[in-house]
Amino acid sequence: MKDLTKGMPAKVILLFALPLILGNILQQVYNLADAKIVSEYAGEISFAAIGATMVIVNLMTGFVNGLTQGFGILIARCFGAKDEMRMRKFIAGTVKLTLIVTVLMTVIGELVIHNLLVLLKTPDTILYEAELYIRILIGGFVCSCVYNMLANILRAVGDSKRPLYCLMGAIVINIGLDLLFIPVLHLGIKGAAIATVISQGIAALSVAMIVWKKYRMIIPRRKEWNLDTDQYLNLSVSGLSMGFMNCIVSFGTIILQSGINGLGTNIIQAHTAGRKVFDVLMVMIFTVGIAMTTYVSQNLGAGKIDRVRQGVRQAMIVETVLTTLMILICYTLGGKMVCWLASSSEKEVIEPGVMYIRVGVLFFYVLGPLFVLRCSLQGLGRKIVPVVSSVLELLVKIASVLFLVPRLQYFGVALTEPISWIVMTIWLAVAYIRLDIDNIVKGE
C-alpha cells in the first residue's frame, strides 16, 4: 500500500502514475497487436467489424471502470484518514454493487446488441462479424468487471503496481491465443473475441489471488458486509456519477461513430487504425489525470488541502511536458503506425487516419488540464461538475454529427473532440477556481 499524503506532490503523483501509464501503454500495444493480427490474418472485413463495435465495448467497460473508480474515491479517502473499518465496509459495498451492475449489463447487452448495431448504421458487409464478436465479449463481460473492480480497490490504497503485473501477463496470453486461434485454428474474429475473454478472466483471477495473499487486511470481516443505507447511498452516488460520466462520453462517441459509419468502409477502417494510434498517444495524458483521483482523495481524507492545490498545479506542468513529447512522436511516427496497423497502402485509408491523429494531438495542451481538473474535482467529491462537462461533450458530438460531418466529412470528425475539449476545460477551470476546498474538509 502507498500513502500519497507525504513527499513532493509531483514525484508522488508520477511514481504512482508510472505503473498506470505502463499498464495502459501495454493495453494499447495489445490493442494494436490484436488489430494487426486480425487485419493480417482475418481480413479487412473483420478489422472493420472490430472498429464498428469498439465504441460499444468502450461504453460498457468505461461505465464499469468509472463506477469502480468512483467507489475507489471513498475507499482512498478512508485510507488517507486511517479509518480501516469504514474502508473495509466500502470495499464490501463495492463488491456487491459491482456484481449487481455486471449481471444487469450482461443481460441487457445481449438483448439489445443487434438493434444497437443496426441503429449505428453498421454496414451490412460487416454486421454479422461485428455482432458475433461483441456477443462473445458481452458474454464474458464479468471477467473485465471483476478485474477493474479489484484493480481500482488496490489503486485506492496506493498499489498501482500489482494490477500492472497481472495485466502484463494477461496481455502476453491474449496475444499468444490470438496467434493460435486466428492464423492456426482459423477461428477468425470469433477467435479474437474468445482470446480476449480468456485473458481477462486470467487477469481477474490473478488480482483476486493477490488480494487474498497480500491484502488480507482490506478484506471485509463478516459483520462488515452489512452496510447501512447511507453507506450504500454514498457509494452509489460516487460510483454512478463517474460511471455515468464515462458513459455519457462513450455515448457521445457512439453517436459520432454513427456519423463515421455513414462515410463508408474505407473511413471506418481509417478511423479504426487512427483511433488506436491516437489512444496510444493519449495514454500518458489520461493516466496522470487518473492518478490525481487517488492523490486528491487520500489527501482530502488526511485534511491536507495545501497538498491538493500544489498537486494540481504540478500535475498541469507534467501534462504540458508530456503533450510536447506526444506531438513529436505523432508527427514523426504517426503515419507509419497507421499504415502498419491497417495493413493497407491505399490513400483512401491511410491519409484520413493520419490526418485524424495529427489534428487531435495538437489539442493535448487542452486535454491534459481537462483530465487533471476533472479527476481532481472527482477526488474532492464534486460529482456534478465533471458530469456536466461530459454532457457538454455529448452535445458537441451530437452537433458535429448533425452539422460538421455532413459538411466537412471526416475532417469534421477530426475537429469534433478538440472542440469539445476546449468547451469542457473552460467549464472545469471556472468550477475549480470558484471552489472553496477548505469548506469541503469542514463538510460545508
Please supply descriptive tags for the structure shown above.
mainly alpha
Tell me about this structure.
The chain is an all-alpha fold. It has one domain. Helices cover 86% and strands 0% of the residues. It has 15 helices and no strands. Helix 4 packs parallel to helix 7, helix 9 packs parallel to helix 11 and helix 11 packs parallel to helix 14. The longest helix is centred in the C-terminal third of the chain and has 38 residues. It starts with 8 loop residues before the first helix and ends with a helix. The relative contact order is 0.13. The model has no long low-confidence stretch (mean pLDDT 84).
SSE arrangement:
Blueprint: H1 9-42, H2 44-80, H3 84-119, H4 124-139, H5 141-156, H6 162-184, H7 188-214, H8 229-261, H9 265-301, H10 305-342, H11 347-361, H12 364-379, H13 384-408, H14 410-434, H15 437-441
Helix pairs in contact: 1-2, 1-6, 1-9, 1-10, 2-3, 2-4, 2-5, 2-8, 2-9, 3-4, 3-5, 3-8, 4-7, 5-7, 6-7, 8-13, 9-10, 9-11, 9-12, 10-11, 10-12, 11-14, 12-14, 13-14
**How many whole angstroms does the radius of gyration measure?**
21 Å
- Total beta-strand segments: 0
Tally of individual helices: 15
Helical proportion, percent range: over 70%
Mean pLDDT equals 84
Strand content: under 5%
Number of domains: 1
Note the main sheet.
none
How far apart the termini lie comes to 30 Å
Uncertain runs with pLDDT below 50, 5 residues or more? none
Assembly annotation: single chain
Q: Would you list the SSEs in sequence order as H and E?
A: HHHHHHHHHHHHHHH
C-alpha geometry: globular
The structural class is mainly alpha
